[in-house]
Amino acid sequence: MTENGATSSKPQTEGGGELTKELLERQRPEEHKEKHFLSSERVRDIILGVSDGLTVPFALAAGLSGAESTSRIILVAGLAEVVAGSISMGLGGYLAAQSEADHYMRELKREEKEIIDVPDLEAAECGEILAQYGVEAEEAEPVVRALTRNPHHWVRFMMKFELGLEKPEETRAIQSAATIAASYAVGGLFPLLPYMVISSATHAVIASVVVTLAALLLFGYVKAYFTGDDKAPIKSALQTAFVGAMASAAAYGIARLIH
Fold first, then answer.
1. How many CB atoms lie within 10 A of CB 85?
2. Where is the composition biased (Basic and acidic residues) (predicted)?
3. Distance between CA atoms of 70 and 64, rounded to whole angstroms?
4. What residue spans define the domains of the chain?
5. Nearest of 91, 3, 50 to residue 223 by alpha carbon
6. Other C-beta atoms within 10 Å of 245: how many?
7. pLDDT digits (tens, 9 = 90+) for 68-115
8. Cβ contacts of residue 190 below 8 Å, gap of 6+?
9. How far apart are the first and last CA of the chain?
10. Contact predicate 251/62, CB 8 Å
């Protein structure tokens, strides 16, 4: 009962406190698991590899067809490009991921030094960061004190919320290289499939256009799903197919002009 005789709706424990931990646990959902099929980095690598894999060999095959090359020549040249492109893209992904890891370590060392050299300034920055999320100064003060008592968590907080940097996985560079290279190789095979079964380059290029545009449309649609743009999958599919079509048309037209 409250002082005015009304019954309080706030659950009480035996000691008159707030809800016990046990009651809080009961109120939580029985099971809540985050469901993520792939990490954002892995999705980005796959998109990069497949998009280039579909477009570059497609443009090369179209260009060679415009130069009136045979299906065998186009197939050999296309496969060579897929191998070379996979290696090049994989190495590029490795170097990019390694550079990100090196940058993270440099910034980490700088932050570790700053919380020792200028702890008051870094603590003030913590408060400013929390203020950006609507936390008032008096509410932020105990949070800042708790952070500053643990240098490890303090540095992690500053790295994430001040610099926007997440610690990369130790195997990130290798994973990125392998993912991009494999995705490029898989994507690069689609434009070349018709040349494996059709001896006439004139007929094969038409089949290659159909197969590759279908693959680009499907890829663009799936890409929209994984990137969270599920409201415009058709737009994403058409944009992806348009880019591939323009690249192959340009290559074919230039080859015909030169030839």
1. 21
2. 19-35
3. 8
4. 40-258
5. 50
6. 18
7. 778 889 999 999 999 999 999 999 999 999 998 988 889 888 888 887
8. 54, 58, 211, 212, 215
9. 95
10. yes
